[in-house]
Amino acid sequence: MGIEVGGLLGLIWLIIVVWAIVKVAKSSASGLAKLLWIIALLVFPLVGLIAWLLFGPKG
C-alpha cells in the first residue's frame, strides 16, 4: 500500500511541476528569465517551485 501512495504523491508532484513550467513558459517574462525559472524548477523541484510561487513572474 505504501508504494501506491508514494506513486500517487509522486504523480501529483510531477503534475504540479509541469503546471509551473507551463505557467512560466506562458508568462510575459523575458526569454532569459523564463529559461532560468524552468531550469530552477527542473534542477531543484521543491525549492524552485517555492521560489517561483514567491518570486516568479506574475501573469
Automatic annotation (TrEMBL):
Subcellular locations according to the entry: Cell membrane
Domain of life: Bacteria
InterPro entries hit by this protein: CLS_N
Residue span, Cardiolipin synthase N-terminal domain: 15-57
Membrane topology category: Multi-pass membrane protein
Principal subcellular localization: membrane
TM region(s), chain numbering: 6-24, 36-55
Alphabetical UniProt keywords: Cell membrane, Membrane, Transmembrane, Transmembrane helix
Protein name as catalogued: PLDc N-terminal domain-containing protein
